[in-house]
Amino acid sequence: MTGKKGVAGFWPVGGYRISFRRDGRWYADDEPIENRKIARLFSQHVRPDGEGGWVIDLGIDRQRVDVEDTPLVVVAVEGDPQSGFRVRANDGIETPLDCETLCVGPDNALYCRLDRGERGVLPARLLRPAYYQLANWIEEDAEGAVLPCKGKKYPLRPCPKRD
Which CATH architecture has domain 15-67? Predict the structure, then answer.
């Protein structure tokens, strides 16, 4: 590569087709991005573009991103029904799980929404390990599958349709 490095300290991302796939990995021109620091940086800066799509916004460097499913994935779930659950996403941020946002998508995948401050409340898909960590606590009642948490039962409803 020739030219100047971008403000973020690496080559600007504008010359590549960047994508985030449902497996929770970043890709540049269909090649996996193996550098974990770059992948986390992208995850920490992905945001809605205001037109129904997604961008990585690094200040001066800004790149459109093809998001296959959700812009974030949940990599781990900790906790229990008494104290509540915490989720860690691929951006490295750990937050309480808002059980009201938990829903079931295609192929019985679990989804939730994560508050990311200025970036907004973003949808996230639970990767398989996180799914099974949470599934240990799911119960069946007359209404169907529910997640007990802090004295309440949250029904696992189908996710709303996304455009």
Answer: Roll (3.10)
